[in-house]
């Protein structure tokens, strides 16, 4: 939640400036000795492209709320990590910047979790573009192999509207509910990544090839499912119910879906 406390913002700037390594001496010989650790205000303001007078007022909590451009420059000048940058934005009274795209690499610990649940429950991981990144052995058995091919073969929305997987897995009624959800989640993905070329191409492909997609898209729904109970047909065990919970890793924009079995029908 953005903060309006200028003194806390200034204190954070001072701490981060003090933690930075000062530049090395030119020619290998230092001409002056520093009495305080870190960078001087002048050095930070030069790197950020702002006046030292303005930067000083920021540290002292006397300046108006900084713009997003100023916050971005300060984060770069201070060498902040993504988490530190987001904290700076909140202290400055602004929401953190949205990521340009989801991360492409899954955390190693999450992959170990998937493998550890092979004999317990199906687990899948997809990203904010709705691309399937990983699934464990139990999910592979339940959901089957990917069908089709091409650039969008791992995309959940593309699979939903261009293959016959859903009717086999969920039945006609369940498949129709999933199509509605897939279109709504694709709209949400586009709202978060409006300039994403991959998502724009996916939208164009589905709109050109799927009448069902066009009908659902015209409904204009937006959603992100967090939990549900689904009746699904396991290829070896027949119909069963699964309680599905969705966990979100906001830093990477990865979505972890856990399918807890509720018993055969």
UniProtKB/TrEMBL annotation:
Pfam families annotated for this entry?
HTH_31 (PF13560), MLTR_LBD (PF17765)
Q: Residue spans with biased composition (Basic and acidic residues)?
A: 1-13
Q: Which InterPro entries match?
A: Cro/C1-type_HTH, Lambda_DNA-bd_dom_sf, MLTR_LBD
**What top-level branch of life does the organism fall under?**
Bacteria
Quick one: where's region Disordered?
Answer: 1-38
Q: Which GO terms describe its molecular function?
A: DNA binding
Could you tell me which residue ranges the HTH cro/C1-type domain spans?
Answer: 38-85
Q: What is this protein called?
A: Helix-turn-helix protein
């Amino acid at each position: 939640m953005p903060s309006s406390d200028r003194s806390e913002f200034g204190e954070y700037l001072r701490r981060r400036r003090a933690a930075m390594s000062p530049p090395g001496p030119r020619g290998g010989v230092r001409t002056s000795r520093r009495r305080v650790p870190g960078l001087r205000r002048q050095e930070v303001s030069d790197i950020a492209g702002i006046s030292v007078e303005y930067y000083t007022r920021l540290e002292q909590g006397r300046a108006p709320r900084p713009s997003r451009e100023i916050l971005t420059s300060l984060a770069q000048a201070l060498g902040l990590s993504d988490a530190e940058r987001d904290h700076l934005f909140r202290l400055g009274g602004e929401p953190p910047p949205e990521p340009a795209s989801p991360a492409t690499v899954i955390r190693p610990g999450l992959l170990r979790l998937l493998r550890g649940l092979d004999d317990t429950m199906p687990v899948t991981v997809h990203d904010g573009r709705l691309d399937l990144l990983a699934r464990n052995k139990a999910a592979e058995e339940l959901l089957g192999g990917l069908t089709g091919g091409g650039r969008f073969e791992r995309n959940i929305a593309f699979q939903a509207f261009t293959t016959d997987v859903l009717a086999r897995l969920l039945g006609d009624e369940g498949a129709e509910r999933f199509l509605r959800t897939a279109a709504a989640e694709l709209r949400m993905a586009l709202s978060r990544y409006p300039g994403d070329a991959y998502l724009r191409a996916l939208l164009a492909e589905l709109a050109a090839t799927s009448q069902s997609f066009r009908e659902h898209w015209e409904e204009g729904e937006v959603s992100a499912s967090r939990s549900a109970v689904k009746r699904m047909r396991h290829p070896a065990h027949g119909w069963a119910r699964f309680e599905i919970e969705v966990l979100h890793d906001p830093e990477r924009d990865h979505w972890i879906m856990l399918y807890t079995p509720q018993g055969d029908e």
